[in-house]
Amino acid sequence: MKITVDFEECLKDSPRFRATIEEVEGDVCELESKLDKLVKLCIGMIDAGKAYNAANKQFVSGIRELAQQSAKDEVIESSLTKFAESLQEMINYHTILFDQAQRSIKMQLQTFVKDDLRKFKEAKKQFDKVSEEKETALSKNAAAPRNKQHEVEEATNILTATRKCFRHIVLDYVLQINVLQSKRRSEILKSMLSFMYAHLTFFHQGYDLFSELQPLMKQLGGQLDQLVVDAAKEKRDMEQKHSTIQQKDFSNDDTKLEYNVDTDNGIAMEGYLFKRASNAFKTWNRRWFTIQNNQLVYQKKFKDNPTVVVEDLRLCTVKHCEDIERRFCFEVVSPTKSCMMQADSEKLRQAWIKAVQNSIATAFRDKGDDSEKLDRKSSTSTGSLDSGGEPKERSLKGESALQKVLAIPGNACCCDCGQPEPRWASINLGITLCIQCSGIHRSLGVHFSKVRSLTLDTWEPELLKLMCELGNKVINQIYEARREELGARKPQPGDPRHEVEAYIKAKYVDRRFVRRPSDEELRSKVVSLSKQEKRLSGNSEHMPPKAPPPTPKLRPGSNASGQSVKSADSGIQNSADGSREMLATTPSNNSLADAEPAETPPMPMPATLPPPSPCKEMVFYEPKEYSPGLQLYWASCARSLPDMAEALAHGAEVNWVNTEEEKRTPLIMAVQGGSLVTCEFLLQNAANVNQQDAQGRGPLHHATMLGHTGQVCLFLKRGANQNATDIEEKTPLSIAVEAANADIVTLLRLAKMNEEMREAEGPYSQSGQYNSNSPTEMQYRKCMQEFISLQLDESE
Fold it and tell me: What pLDDT score was predicted for residue 146?
């Protein structure tokens, strides 16, 4: 309850005033006690929170150690790593929450108690002192005798001075009381409101973080059901095998349990033998011996490097040893040394001697064949996409992507509030964001901003290059061009969320700070971009091909003259060997084998092919009117991402149609310009990958005609319809076959077979979601990403 004291009442020093003063003093005393208790409880809460964070950090460290220990299991390792990163983010959010509690509750209320309540106590002391002096003066004045004039005058003077001092002190005291009563409300509410906003931010950040993590958790949930079923099945199989082996009778052939033969890995024999040392004591040690790759080696432990006993078995002999005290011994003799060994039984000794003799004979017989196989193996691996193993991982994740993006000028701080070290990005705008601004961007909807983590998500090369070609500095020059002119204040780190949210909505939704160009400025920009496009189109790299495209580095070279359509089909074996094998094993009613039999005779192609007729030279015509859509149209062809971003900020429709240029769209012009990153930028901003021009050709048609393999991969990856036909009833595949472009034929047929495999495999798991981690789908995506990465590397 707020208690105020009337200034006029205090001058009367009435009983009502004294009662009010007494009530105020009791209330302030109780307030001080409650505030001290609250501050102590806050300190205890902060200490407990710090202890919780410390224990939580140790728990997260344990998860990371478990993930490292499970490095061989990709599912467990990647899942635990992501969980540990997310939990570490939550620990950071907790730390921020406790820091805010310390600032808002502990420090703010302590300041109020130490400063304002201290002033109140000092004023109270002076008031009590002058009150006593006033009572004494009143009593002395009343007791002064009438016949003693000098005492009367002295008492009157003292009383007058005391009353004057009392009025001054009591007015100051009442002022201090009223100020304290007014301030206590604002100080308490201010500290508690700040603390509650800290909680709001904490839970909002946690919600955003786990919203990002939810798809992975759902995916793991679907996989977990299958893992439980598989584990139960494996347990039954193991129990059955255990029972079968336990019941098996090894009494007649127990020596086979003492050694192993693995012909697939080239192991002729392996098992335990006693070996006599070459020292003076001739001690015997039990070692694990292996006959492999024309050598006899042994090791003490599995992780030890094998010790070679015989370098080349062709140069040694083996014999029984009956002249020593130990049984079952045999000796392997080479030109430089001999090795005495002992088996556990006579049957084992005979098996080892036979294995050594067979290995010697095999080494002589296969001497010439081994070198031929080695040559063939090394030559085929260089021509395969997989290079004899897993393809090179092109996607970037975590710190690699973070370092590349933050190296762009202006990206080291949040684009909207300036918070240093941002960890989030808007991929369709090409900017970096802090955690608070990323949550606000996400609330705008994906049609305004698509948010992705720089540390938790995997970044494709084309998306990473898109981020590196834009950046905060470029985007702010567009979206904040009129901010200072309008007097708008840019948010700072630590500003209330509602202020930052209002600014971001004004910036990106309302586009309030974008400078609208005049008609003359727009015309000048469009003409400049069209001229820039002509300079680019003069480069032979972006002209329509007049001959079969040069052989990519991943495909063995072949002669362009006399190349057949079937040769293009054989490119599947070279560029996606693993996918071809998987796809070929699955029957399909509409498979390519039925449509194009293997015995079809090859179709001869001319040595020089004419350029595809649908590709026309870009000519700039004076349009009827200039618009942001026209700017986007020519900027896409000129490969100028800043001009494209500016056109979109000015309200350009991403699927704008140029009716004067055969209804071409910006995405089709981006194909003509030859830039894969430009296409990616338009697709991230909701460009229609299947929108056709007046000739019925979509972006996939144009990319095929121009021989842009990376763009073909990108459009297939984004759901382009490869079965669409133009007005001449031609599909992208038929155009690629006519141009004898083996790589694009390979990709289009591989995409078609992948669709058939999706239907044949039944891609939906128990959870009802599409199984994007099936072996076929993963191999297909790797093949596509390899071609995209190659085009990006060549453009650099």
Answer: 82
